[in-house]
Write a structure and sequence with these properties.
Length: 425
């Protein structure tokens, strides 16, 4: 096995027709390698790409992409949405915690893994940096591993350690990681949602939150809380002030006390510097992080996730707009169930009451073709900018009434009429 640094072009030339290639995700998206890979469009044939979320707005905007490549994605980020909903891609519905099984059980065997790592330390060990998640399993099972080695990739603690001798081709670069700022998307409505969620969070709770403006709004509302912990599939910049103020201490977690546990991070350079060589942040294999049995072991686990729409019985669509695939199942169900099983835990669905064009997100029926990510039996709390609905233990009509109370006022009369049509009571 050669681990002498080579040019990216030499590395990409090793790829063959008919290969299945794993692409490292989020802030670890190997943009340098991908640009050279896509330069071989027309040369390579029948190459399948698999990944979760990737960053880079135009990175897949490749002329004649379908001549060589097919995107088979486990999660639909905005940069591949057109491919997935067109002829050059598809979506695999799968829990984030179970993706590793697709590699391990040879359901989707990997020929190649394109990864993004920190430089080797004095012992020869690199780090998968900002994204350990499913990448740990991918590098274990791929036949050929090509890594872009970046001085600007943080070295993180946990399961993301890989020795340079495990890597078949090293490509040295010095490039900034992609950055995302979710706080810029905050509104008055998301701030109100954040405050309502904060009311449900007790001191010593253990938090999981997804990405976006609502999770950051929740974190911004926790300034008076004490001894919070974090066990989450991912986090962004929003937790840094709470760590600096001593609000997040992780002191009362039963699993990994004193440590923030995550699978990946995505945010600004400040976040990447925060996790760099930080022993208080542990990046672990997502099969472990998102295991409901692990999640429930921490008392007072609060899982906050969002939705595209929710029907009056509590069914949550979080991955599609009708038949249009918008995102993915991800880890929502892993954490919703884990939080429900946690002693004193609270699973929360938080969403704006209306879409950008004013349509109600609380609806009598999900759109035709919409996917149910979280079933009505799993949903406990639903939060909008108009309040909190506790659905646990309520019958179908009571659920409808509770959800109507937190719907946008412009749509409540319609929802009341639809409820009467359905239940006739």
């Amino acid at each position: 096995m050669s681990t002498t640094p080579i040019s990216a072009s030499q590395a990409i030339q090793q790829l063959k027709n008919g290969s299945r290639i794993f692409i490292h995700g989020s802030a670890a998206t190997p943009a340098h390698l991908l640009k050279l890979l896509f330069a071989r469009t027309g040369d390579l044939k029948n190459v399948e790409l698999v990944s979760i979320t990737t960053l880079g707005k135009d990175i897949f905007n490749v002329p004649d992409f379908g001549r060589s490549f097919f995107m088979n994605s486990f999660f639909v980020s905005d940069n591949v949405r057109a491919l997935i909903n067109g002829n050059d891609g598809e979506y695999v519905p799968v829990f984030l915690s179970e993706i590793h099984q697709l590699f391990e059980r040879n359901i989707l065997p990997l020929d190649v893994a394109l990864i993004h790592v920190s430089p080797p330390d004095k012992h020869g060990y690199c780090s998968l940096g900002t994204s350990v998640d499913i990448a740990r399993s991918a590098v274990k099972h791929a036949k050929l591993i090509i890594a872009q080695v970046n001085k600007q990739m943080p070295r993180t603690h946990g399961d993301g350690v890989i020795h340079r001798n495990e890597i078949h081709a090293l490509v040295e670069i010095d490039e900034a990681l992609p950055e995302v700022s979710y706080s810029l998307k905050a509104t008055e409505d998301t701030a109100r949602i954040g405050k309502f969620c904060a009311e449900l969070i007790e001191d010593r709770s253990c938090l999981q939150m997804g990405i976006g403006a609502i999770p950051d709004a929740v974190l911004s509302s926790l300034g008076n809380h004490k001894d919070l912990g974090v066990h989450t599939e991912m986090f962004s910049d929003g937790i840094i002030p709470l760590v600096e103020k001593g609000i997040i201490t992780n002191a009362y977690k039963h699993k990994h006390p004193g440590e923030i546990v995550t699978g990946f991070v995505s945010g600004t350079r400040k976040l990447y510097d925060f996790v760099d060589d930080n022993p208080a942040v542990r990046f672990l294999d997502i099969a472990y992080v998102n295991d409901p049995h692990v999640i429930k072991a921490n008392p007072k686990t609060v899982a906050i996730n969002s939705a595209i729409e929710i029907d009056l019985t509590g069914q949550v669509c979080a991955d599609s707009i009708g038949t249009c695939q918008y995102s993915g199942v991800g880890g929502q169900m892993d954490f919703m169930r884990g939080a429900a099983l946690s002693q004193g835990g609270k699973p929360i669905i938080a969403l704006n009451s209306v879409s950008k064009n004013g349509e109600s997100k609380i609806v009598p029926f999900l759109k035709p073709g919409a996917g149910v990510v979280t079933t009505r039996a799993h949903v406990h709390y639903v939060v909008t900018e108009f309040g909190i609905a506790d659905l646990f233990g309520k019958n179908l009509k009571q659920r409808a009434e509770a959800l109507i109370r937190i719907a946008h006022p412009n749509h409540r009369d319609w929802l009341i009429q639809e409820t009467h049509k359905r239940f006739g009571k």
